[in-house]
Specification:
With about 120 residues, the protein is an alpha/beta fold. It has one domain: Rossmann fold (3-Layer(aba) Sandwich), CATH 3.40.50.720. It is about 30% helix and about 20% strand. The protein is built from 5 helices and 7 strands, in the order βαββββααβαβα. The chain is globular, with a radius of gyration of 13 Å. The model has no long low-confidence stretch (mean pLDDT about 95).
């Protein structure tokens, strides 16, 4: 699998959260993974970055923020991270952000990162 550097936006240290499980599975799959969240901590030995950290060469942003919380990150996602793809996990579907991303040439997918990894189509 090619290395698709992935930013997990909405990462949580709570092991019951899907974002936490996604970080573990992405790392297990050998993908460079950057968790970004609002609280300090670590997942799978990787420090959670806070705020809007500068991250280069992002392939995928996988979202774990509900649409109401995504608005403040539009500029960060689209203009700073400039990913090739955004994965809208269940509960994060946001047509406004999808349209904005597509206008910038960013691929959007409504999917589940965990399922994508499990079936090999990440």
């Amino acid at each position: 699998m090619e290395n698709k550097k992935t930013v997990v936006l909405g990462a949580s240290t709570n092991e019951e959260r899907v974002s936490n499980q996604a970080v573990h599975r992405l790392v297990k799959a050998g993908l460079e993974t950057v968790p970004v969240g609002i609280r300090k901590g670590a997942i799978a030995g990787i420090e959670i970055l806070n705020g809007e950290p500068k991250i280069e060469d992002v392939h995928t942003v996988t979202l774990y923020l509900n649409p109401k919380r995504q608005g403040m990150y539009y500029d960060y996602i689209l203009n700073d991270l400039k990913p090739k793809r955004i994965v809208f996990n269940p509960g994060t579907e946001n047509w406004e952000l999808m349209r904005k991303a597509q206008k910038e040439g960013i691929k959007t997918e409504i999917a589940c990162t965990l399922v994508m990894l499990a079936v090999g189509n990440y």
